[in-house]
Each structure stands twice: as C-alpha cells, then as structure tokens.
Amino acid sequence: MITRSPDLPDFGASPVTEVVLGVQFGTLDRLLSPHLGLVWAEFRDRFPEIEEHPPLDFTFETFSDKAPGLPMPRVQFELLTAPPTPRVFFINTAKTELLQVQRDRFLHNWRKVGDGDAYPRFERMLATFETGFRQFEAVVGRENLGSVVPNQCEISYFNQIAMHSDQSLFEAFARIFRPFTSALILDDLGTPEDARFSVQYVIRENTGPLGRLYVSALPARKLDGTKIVHLTLVARGKPLSADLAGVSGFLNLGRRHIVRTFTELTTDEMHRVWERNQ
Predict the structure, then answer these.
(1) How far apart are CA 103 and CA 91, in angstroms?
(2) Secondary structure of 136-202 in the HEC alphabet?
(3) Cβ contacts of residue 122 below 8 Å, gap of 6+?
(4) The pairing of beta strand 197-205 with beta strand 227-237
(5) Looking at the chain, which runs of residues are DSSP E strands?
(6) Is the CA virtual torsion 14, 216, 127, 210 positive or negative?
(7) Is the dihedral of CA 9, 11, 15, 16 positive or negative?
(8) What angle do CA 13, 115, 112 make, to 5 degrees?
(9) What is the longest distance spanned by two Cα atoms in the chain?
C-alpha cells in the first residue's frame, strides 16, 4: 500500500463527507445487465447490497490549440436500439462504502453516513479501488466481454463546512477562505448578500496539459436545516498510461493537487478547527 507523503498537509478533523475514485474506459458493448450480476458475485461478501442507477455520461477533458487551457464543449448523440445498461451500486452493510460499475466506468466511494464514520484515508481507498478493478477486469476477461482500456480518471472530495448559526453567508466565506474575500466589500454597498465561487486549473506534465482541477463552494443546508458551505474539489484527466498503474498514478497526482489546493485556499483559523497536524 502507498504511504502518505510526509510533505502533504494532513488534518485530524477534516470536513470531508465523501470521496470518489474512478476510472472511465472504452465502452464494453458486450457487457449486458446479466453480466453485472456476475460482477457482483465477486464483491457480494463485502458489498452485499445493490442498487440500480442511470449510467453516467461519457466525459473527456479536452484542450484546444487555438484556446489553450479552455474546455471545448462536446455534445454526443447516441441512437438507442435498446434500454441503456444501468449503473449498479454494490454497497457495504454500513452503507459507508460502495463500488459503482457500468459499461464504461468503475468507481469506489466512501461517504460519511453518521457522525462516528471516519474517513478511511486515501491510501486504503486506493487499495480497495485497485483490488476491485482487478477483479472487474478478471470477470470481463473470463466472460470475453472485451478489453478494459482506461482513458480518463477522476478523484473527487466533497466537504461540508458548518456555519455558525448567527453568521451571514459572506461572514462564513471570509472565515473559511483566504483574505481575497475582503476585496468584495464595497464602500457603497457593503458586504455581498450572497457568495459562491467556481474556479478551475489545468493539471500539466512535461508533455502538456493532462487534466483539470475544479473547485466550487456553494451555500447549502443539511437535512436537519444546518447551514453549511459545500466545498467540492475534483481532479479529472488522462491516466499516466492506459492500465491500472497509469490510473493509480493520476489518482495519486490528483489527490496531491486537491489536498494542496484545499490547504492553500482555506485560512489558518480553519486549519486549527480541522486540527492540521502536518
């Protein structure tokens, strides 16, 4: 198992509530709904519950020579002659971990269900993802369903940051994020009534753009009415090579960028709340 890099920031009480590791690959046209039952048989002892969901759309990070770094819109039309093969969730008994499988995706989620649910850490999640992906590949090979050729990877962190009950939204943003928020206070109008942001960065390597890091912060409420700021960080892009090693390489790279970006965008005050220890 990969050990945590000693130079990577670490938080003992992180606000993370869900993490997703995933890979997209060329569509397995021969994989039909009955085959998903064969896949589940490989995981049923650890993930005994199952759900059906609509499949995720095919997604690529693309780059244009004419406008470097800008995402190019992509519209895909598909003539369906049969109902789409569903995306299935294999869920553990505690409902905190699950695997998602569809014709062109394999994903592993951890999610916080109760207050006592502790994030198992990236290294353990990656080990679970790698083991599961190998088992999935084995079923695909055994059933002669095609070749699993990775073409995109994604790692996502979802954070719920509680607001004080007497705080305005802008006050919460000013407490959570770096002092750039002070520039939004105007002489004539004062502080903004609402606040939210969305930014994206290009992930590069020596050969050029590899993918993107997306960051968004939005006001929200939990089911019990508690006001929160929902902070999402997603790294998506091309695997370092078209195999599991290349997928894991990108997931490690994306995780590093996510953790560093989370740390750089947020304040020292919040780092103390989240018990930064590294």
Answers:
(1) 18
(2) HHHHHHHCCCCCCCEEEEEEEEEEEEECCCCCCHHHHHHHHECHHHHHHCECCCECCCCCCEEEEEE
(3) 4, 19, 255
(4) unpaired
(5) 16-25, 49-53, 87-91, 97-102, 105-111, 150-162, 197-205, 208-221, 227-237
(6) negative
(7) positive
(8) 80
(9) 69
On whether the CB atoms of residues 146 and 32 are closer than 8 A, the answer is no
Q: Write out the chain's pLDDT in tens, 278 residues.
A: 556 777 899 999 999 999 999 999 999 999 999 999 999 999 999 999 999 999 999 999 999 765 544 454 454 555 545 578 899 999 999 999 999 999 999 999 999 999 899 999 999 999 999 999 999 999 999 999 999 999 999 999 999 999 988 889 999 999 999 888 888 899 999 999 988 999 999 999 887 899 999 999 999 999 888 999 999 999 999 999 999 999 999 999 999 999 999 999 999 999 999 999 98
Nearest by Cα to 107 from 88, 83, 84? 88
Encoded tokens for 250: 């990108």
Alpha-carbon Rg for the chain, nearest whole angstrom, is 20
Q: Which two tokens stand for residue 165?
A: 């009950």
Residue 26 has what DSSP assignment? S
What are the C-alpha distances in Å from 239 to residues 74, 235, 243, 261? 20, 12, 8, 20
pTM of the predicted structure, to 2 decimals:
0.91
